[in-house]
Amino acid sequence: MSHYAIYKKAAERSGCKEKSIQPLCSKGHISNAKKIRGVFRVAVRKKPLSAKGQPIGSFPFNVKCLYGQNTKIYEQKPKLSEKTKDSCVVKSIELFPGAMLIFQDIHTEHLDFSKNNVAFPPNVISIQHCREGRFEGEYQNGECFYLGPGDLSINLPFCQPKQNSFPLSHYHGLNLIIDTQAAQQYIMDIEKLVGQLHIDLKKLSDSLKKGNHLIIYRENVLEHIMSELYFMKEESKDGSIRMKVLEFLHCLCSQKASSPIQPVYFNHNQVKAVKEIQAYLTEHPQEHKTLEELSDKFQIPLTSMKTCFKGVYGMSVKAYLREYRLQLAAELLKEKSAGVGDIAFQVGYESPSKFAEAFRKKFNCAPSEYRRETFFRE
Predict the structure, then answer these.
(1) What does R_g of the chain's alpha carbons equal in angstroms?
(2) pLDDT (tens digit, 9 = 90+) per residue, 14-39?
(3) Alpha-carbon distances of 230 from 267, 305, 307, rounded to whole Å
(4) pLDDT (tens digit per residue) in 356-375
(5) Residue 304 DSSP SS3
(6) Are 304 and 261 in contact (CB under 8 A)?
(7) What are phi and psi of 165, to 5 degrees?
(8) Which CA distances in Å does 259 have to 210, 217, 246, 255?
(9) Taking 70 as the threshold, does the pLDDT of residue 116 lie above it?
(10) What share of the chain is helix, strand, coil (3-state, %, to 5)?
């Protein structure tokens, strides 16, 4: 038999103000409401069980299943931290039945999901948003796709990539996982209070199953809504995050967002070649090879090399090498052993003056000033 919770609890669950619950109950807008001793009380039913005995709307996995046993789980959203090698820090929030939001702070090269054997229900949709860094998904057939800052992807987990990598070893983003059946029921209950939201998760899921296994959006209204989630409060009694997610789903399902872009896939052999090029460049920053020489050395056509390298790392070969050299120089400047001129040659600059000019453009100060400020902070 259902037991009855006072309307204050109902207000907390629905995100409404406490004083608004009683009028809504009296007008019949809230189901399972019953007037007892002059006060409306709302029935709290236990979650129905599926055939396997799992509550409908609860996910049959935990965060460690998704990201590995070495994952650090924070009670609060992870802050954008300085790079820590091989770390995976996440914060998960169960928004409402059938919806889980996971904030990601990852500093490692890859997460191998093939070892975790996570069994997703067939009616689950995964939505991934990249805030910083680079995300790589590799499918069983060897094809790879990439997300950069501002990109957002939607896919069905049963055809998820066999491995997710992070080419820059630095990634901040979020993952919204939705059980369409349970979430749709919650949305229908919300619509009784606020009106039609035009959110049809089944239709969205069906469109993905018809062949659009992966949908990518880039820098549009959907990305703008998702980016706001990083700065919102996440207390359980605060419904702002839930409302923002509902706004996102409304824009997605009502087609208020701009059209998705066509996913670009890269062949595994091409990706392997450009990753070997990247490894070579970072191991020999003082060398000055032309693009043609790199193409010949690693046996990949020049045009394919340039296109694939930018797809994997988000920038051209020259831009990547310039960025790496300056970041390496900044690390070397923190040490007292080498002079500024020596560091310039170590990272591939033939002239200390050109190095100083490039360093100033990147860090807004001269190399000597950077070293002095570093020692002062320490």
Answers:
(1) 25
(2) 445 455 555 656 655 555 566 666 66
(3) 33, 35, 32
(4) 999 999 999 999 899 888 76
(5) helix
(6) no
(7) -120, 165
(8) 18, 7, 20, 8
(9) no
(10) 40, 20, 35
